Amino acid sequence: MISDLSTYSIENFIMFSYEVYWSMVASYNTELWPYQLIIFAFNIFLFFSILKRKNLKWVLALVGIYHAVIANIFFIQKFALINTASEYIGYLYLLISFLLFSLAFRSQRWKKSHSKITLVLIVVGLFVPFHFFRQFELTHIMLAGWGSLNTSLLTLGVLSSVQDTGKYLKKLISALTLFWILLYFTVAIYLD
Questions:
Q1: Distances 45 to 27, 48, 77, 171 between C-alpha atoms, Å
Q2: Is 60 within 8 Å of 103 (Cβ atoms)?
Q3: Cβ(58)–Cβ(48) under 8 Å?
Q4: pTM for this structure?
């Protein structure tokens, strides 16, 4: 029985094909079309708030809302239809959302300046549509607040800009976010 565990591979845990995933992303974007423009406007607000190092509580709260929206709409409602594990990923995103809110309501301050890697994470998370470069279709655009990878990169960038007043909470959020990014790329590499 235990010896049978060695016969499993990652394909036993992936319950959908590449084409099914992309059709699900396209339907997600098409059904909820006007909201991407609203999220893009929020992303511009986030970008300038981060650059000017203002409104930290609002930035953390908005990133927390992004995680809650992705958890509920994408992972729990949409993606769970083709992959049963996505519901658990949705709960992970809800946990990260809760932790970001609790970090937002502590006394946090921006660092005196942003490092270059921090700015790269923030800009890439906010404005680079990874999925679009893959398929070159407008229905595959996923930015921060809409797509999980972009939101995770934005989260890491924002957390690296915050002074370490909530060290353990900040480290926990970063660890959970990095876990998701690792899982995301593991599945993406397999599907290619």
A1: 27, 5, 28, 25
A2: yes
A3: no
A4: 0.78
Are the C-beta atoms of residues 187 and 14 closer than 8 Å to each other? yes
List, as one string, the DSSP characters of 86-147. HHHHHHHHHHHHHHHHHHHTS---B-SS--HHHHHHHHHHHH--HHHHHH--GGG---TTTS
What is the full per-residue pLDDT of the chain (192 aa) written as tens digits? 445 656 655 555 555 666 777 777 778 778 877 787 888 888 888 888 888 888 888 889 999 999 999 888 888 888 777 777 778 888 999 999 999 998 888 867 777 777 777 788 787 777 776 555 555 666 666 667 777 888 888 888 888 888 766 678 888 888 888 888 888 777 666 655
Q: Residues in the chain, how many? A: 192
Which 8-state DSSP code applies to residue 77?
I
The 8 Å CB, 24+ separation contacts for 6-12 are 10/186, 10/187, 10/190, 11/190
Please report, as a single letter, which amino acid is at residue 54. Answer: K
| Residue 86 φ then ψ, to 5° | -65, -25
Helix, coil or strand: residue 17: coil
| CA atoms within 13 Å, Cβ hemisphere of 23 | 7
Tell me the C-alpha distance between 186 and 51, whole Å: 32
